[in-house]
Design brief:
The protein is α+β, with helices and mostly antiparallel strands.
Length: 400
């Protein structure tokens, strides 16, 4: 019996995907629920598993092809399961016999004269002979050594003066993935739609770092998760969002929707591109709860296991470019949100403290916001609230 392999539902408003990778080959025997193919949408990567055990028949789509929901991309022959497995083993045995009996290939002839086998133009040959040059390759067509190559070898002092041309093509054309296309589209739409402005401040990280260093071991022992900086900034952002509600809003038509819940999107870098999974109801979570959720979402992002639900519904975004060494940036709003907080590298700098110059661990922070509904004064106040909470983390515990 032949069982069809179909593209499963991909989520709300998603109707097509791209074949990212076939994990098995035609003729392979597979077990039921074994992963067959990875599909990439503009938001997530999905795995399609075998609906039954058997031998894979001809694939109807190749890597890079676009497929619709419900499309048949291949099939499995259930009856051929046993014979398919036997044939596979027989093929392996036959291949091993061929390897044992096949005569060794003759080694490529080597040159004992030490002279170059490169093709030289007549002028280059004359210069090489006069100067006793051994030129391996040049910049001409198919590695041909030109007169200019020979003169360059003379000027650089000798044998092998011409560097061989680098292997491989000088350019490579690669189709953008669905995820990368969507990222590009959304970021450009954000710039075209929102009136984006960015304001900056700087934060003395001494208080948070001392608190973290004092209690990080006890925190890890009790909660089985490390105490990072992101939970402090998430808590500080939520506190500021409650005081400046326009930063936790969105525009729909001619209306402003103010959100009374705090679903914080955390930007995560993956090999496929930047994604922003959401920490749901972050205001109800403890420090440990936020850290654990960030760890879980980060792992799912790196493994390509994020779902549509993980990616949608955020009300405000935090992006930490500091993990890559960024000192300052202007993050782009993640629509339809109206604000994004950018964190950066912690760097020791001389600061004037009570009339004295002291070295403090400082971080620049940035808020990009939609000026259509957020005034400059609100944006500046928002960052000041973040600064106050981070520089004196006791404010977060006392909610003041």
């Amino acid at each position: 019996m032949t069982v069809e392999i179909k593209v499963p539902p991909l989520g709300e408003s998603v109707s097509e995907a791209t074949i990212a990778n076939w994990c098995k080959s035609e003729g392979d025997y597979v077990e039921q629920d074994e992963m067959l193919v990875e599909l990439e949408t503009d938001k997530v990567t999905l795995e399609v598993n075998a609906p039954s055990a058997g031998v894979l028949q001809a694939f109807k789509f190749a890597v890079g092809d676009t497929v619709k929901v419900g499309a048949v991309i291949g099939s499995i022959d259930e009856k051929a399961a046993k014979s398919g497995g036997d044939k596979k083993e027989d093929v392996k045995k036959d291949d091993s016999k061929k390897e044992e009996t096949a005569p060794a290939k003759a080694a490529a002839p080597s040159s004992s004269s030490g002279k170059s086998s490169a093709v030289l133009s007549p002028a280059a040959q004359k210069i090489a002979t006069e100067n006793n040059l051994n030129l391996s390759s040049g910049t001409g067509k198919d590695g041909r050594v030109t007169k200019a190559d020979a003169l360059n070898a003379v000027s650089t002092g000798g044998i092998g003066g011409v560097s061989p041309a680098p292997a491989g093509p000088r350019e490579e054309r690669v189709k953008m993935t669905k995820l990368r296309q969507k990222i590009a589209q959304r970021l450009k739409d954000s710039q075209n739609t929102a009136a984006i402005l960015t304001t900056f401040n700087e934060v003395d990280m001494t208080g948070v770092m001392e608190l973290r260093n004092t209690y990080k071991d006890d925190f890890l022992k009790k909660n089985d998760v490390k105490l990072g900086f992101m939970s402090f900034f998430a808590k500080a952002a939520i506190k500021a969002l409650k005081e400046i509600p326009a930063v936790n809003a969105e525009i729909q038509g001619d209306e402003i929707i103010y959100k009374n819940h705090y679903d914080i999107s955390i930007a995560v870098g993956t090999p496929q591109g930047l994604v922003v999974p959401v920490v749901r109801d972050a205001d109800r979570l403890s420090f440990a709860g936020i850290e654990q959720e960030i760890v879980n979402l980060g792992k799912k992002a790196r493994d390509g296991k994020l779902t549509m639900e993980d990616m949608t519904g955020g009300t405000f975004t935090i992006s930490n470019g500091g993990v890559y060494g960024s000192l300052l940036s202007t993050p782009i709003i993640n629509p339809p949100q109206t604000g994004i907080l950018g964190l950066h590298k912690i760097q020791d700098r001389p600061m004037a403290i009570d009339g004295e110059v002291k070295i403090r661990p400082m971080m620049y922070i940035a808020l990009s916001y939609d000026h259509r509904i957020i005034d400059g004064g609100e944006a500046v106040t928002f960052l000041v609230k973040i600064k106050e909470a981070i520089e004196d983390p006791r404010r977060l515990l006392l909610d003041i």
